[in-house]
Amino acid sequence: MESRQPNSTDEIDHDQASSARRIQRLSSHLYPQPLDGAGAEMAVALMACAGRAKLDVDTELLSKYMRGRYRDVQQGVYDYFNSRPELQTPIEISKDEHRELCMRQLMGLVREAGIRPFRYVVQDPAKYFAILEAVGSVDMSLGIKMGVQFSLWGGSVLNLGTKKHRDKYFEGIDNVEYPGCFAMTELHHGSNVQGIQTVATFDPMKDEFVIDTPNDGAIKWWIGNAAVHGKFATVFAKLMLPTHDTKGVSDMGVHAFIVPIRDMKTNKPLPGVQIHDCGHKVGLNGVDNGALRFRSVRIPRDNLLNRFGDVARDGKYTSPLPSINKRFAATLGELVGGRVGLAYSSVGVLKIAVIIAVRYSLLRQQFGPPKQPEISILDYQSQQHKLMPMLASTYAFHFATSHLVDTYGEMKKTHDEELVGDVHALSAGLKAYVTSYTAKSLSTCREACGGHGYAAVNRFGSLRNDHDIFQTFEGDNTVLLQQVAGYLLKQYKEKFHGGTFSVTWNYLRESMNFYLSQPNPVTARWEGQDHLRDPKFQLDAFRYRTSRLLQSVAVRLQKHSKTLGSFGAWNRCLNHLLTLAESHIETVILAKFIDAVRSCPDEKSRAALKLLCDLYAMDRIWNDIGTYRNVDYVAPNKAKAIHKLTEYLCFQVKNVAKEMVDAFDLPDYVTRAPIGMQAAEDAYTVYTQYAGF
């Protein structure tokens, strides 16, 4: 039967009108049309975009932009371990073997490969952290051991000591002849460093300090490098000076001391030093954590790291800072690099997990339409919603932590007080937020890979176990978020006293007027794609949420402090304060992502990054849509449009997911999961070598 051809202009017009009505009815199901017709506009825009070809991404150019100026030094790390397969950590390895392998890996990196991270700790922190990310991707235990040696033990000598200490110890730390520890945490005191009980009493007769552990609670605990390899320790203790009054001694606050703990030749503990092995841990078993107890251990007076406080031969104490609290703050402020490194390294872990999960999801096929081939599991909306916002977040965190590293480097050069406070708060917030997100994402990635994700060869188990402690050391995440909230409240208070805002908090300058004004009833209903994908709308939404949270918690604290006191009021509002801190950090992350998109020189890469940036913003807004709806910042129709746009962006990111994970440019032996690199039908061949068939 021949198909009927339209034979008049009227019939053609009729068919076109009929098609238009069908499209309109379909659009009305997807996007309920408000009075202003914006819903139809949104639907038509999305349908038009859906019909376009996927973005063309040049992974080489994007990778060059991502990895920046330190791509070569990272590649040097990868090339070295690729050339030395015997130094790659096997899947099955005992605790003791892993510890010795880690030490050989570190020695090989420094002495064979000629990569000397310690030289960059102060002079070029960004280069140091780039090396740390690459090393941690090879084996997270190696990354932590390197951090203990160079950033903590070495960093304490550089940052808390003076020229005499640098001259004496630099070369030995640099070439790992002086392996060392960072002995701050005690059995009874972790986050509360000012409460530590180890004491260092000055003996003017012998010109020495006497280090003592007064009780079991003061034993230094979880000290990396202490159980096996450490020869020295930077010991944090209360400095006690003799006086001529009834007290007999004066507590000058927490100071840092270099204490030799093992004989350089025999490796035996020195007299008065007791060392205990903390044993097998949940993860990071290549790091030899131990406990240290000191019984009247004597060290020369010169072993006091005396940048912020010194003791003369006659016992007189001098300091450029006027109080114990200011000296303590300055001491901890110089150690903030550990948090910077953890935040940056956590993003590196997230990259590995996302690469494995996305590649597997692209290759694994399950089910499909009747009598048709099975489809990739990443074609399922549920898998897209698990992994695509995570991929977008990985990029967002990369740019945010890169900004943190650059700001930290600037702070180390200039010692600008404003930057010091900014880095302290930003490092606390990003470390807490990023490590918590990565910890949750590792489990999500494992689940997204089904049963194959449970195989040890695919790294999820070791990554999850090794990374888990990132949420605790260098500051418990809950404690760090409270510090961020405290800084926000301090800035809020200064607003009313005419003070200035530091860099990260600039947007709060407007928060008391623009952001806290009544939501505009017109813009609350705008739902066009151009509007929702406008960086200004996205940032305004994030900043509005933070500003409302800040104002409301300030009011609550003032109210409750009248009856509960300041401590009780803080505890009553604690969950509110944590939400405030997280909201602020999300705002900073989005701002830095937007900046990175604008700065990208390659047009194709910029378009791909914009897509991920939009998904990051829309996903966060949708996840907290209740907050925006409660105050009518977003009208119901706009909320629906945000949801639909989030789904659409997940689909669009899925189409370029392979290119976006390839741009991380990690070597195959790092993302060595066979199911992440080979088709499902080849998995049997790979697994049999591990199963012994």
TrEMBL record:
Binding annotation for FAD: T185, G224
Domain Acyl-CoA oxidase C-terminal: 534-677
Subcellular location: Peroxisome
Classification via Pfam families: ACOX (PF01756), ACOX_C_alpha1 (PF22924), Acyl-CoA_dh_M (PF02770)
Acyl-CoA oxidase C-alpha1 domain span: 333-489
Listed InterPro entries: ACO (IPR034171), ACOX_C_alpha1 (IPR055060), Acyl-CoA_Oxase/DH_mid-dom (IPR006091), Acyl-CoA_Oxase/DH_mid-dom_sf (IPR046373), Acyl-CoA_oxidase (IPR012258), Acyl-CoA_oxidase_C (IPR002655), AcylCo_DH-like_C (IPR036250), AcylCoA_DH/oxidase_NM_dom_sf (IPR009100)
Domain Acyl-CoA oxidase/dehydrogenase middle as annotated: residue spans: 181-297
Cellular compartments per GO CC: peroxisome
Cofactor: FAD
Domain of life: Eukaryota
Active site (record annotation): E474
Family that this chain belongs to: Belongs to the acyl-CoA oxidase family.
Record-linked PANTHER family: ACYL-COENZYME A OXIDASE, ELECTRON TRANSPORT OXIDOREDUCTASE
Name under which the protein is recorded: Acyl-coenzyme A oxidase
Native species: Salvia splendens (Scarlet sage)
Origin organism lineage: Eukaryota, Viridiplantae, Streptophyta, Embryophyta, Tracheophyta
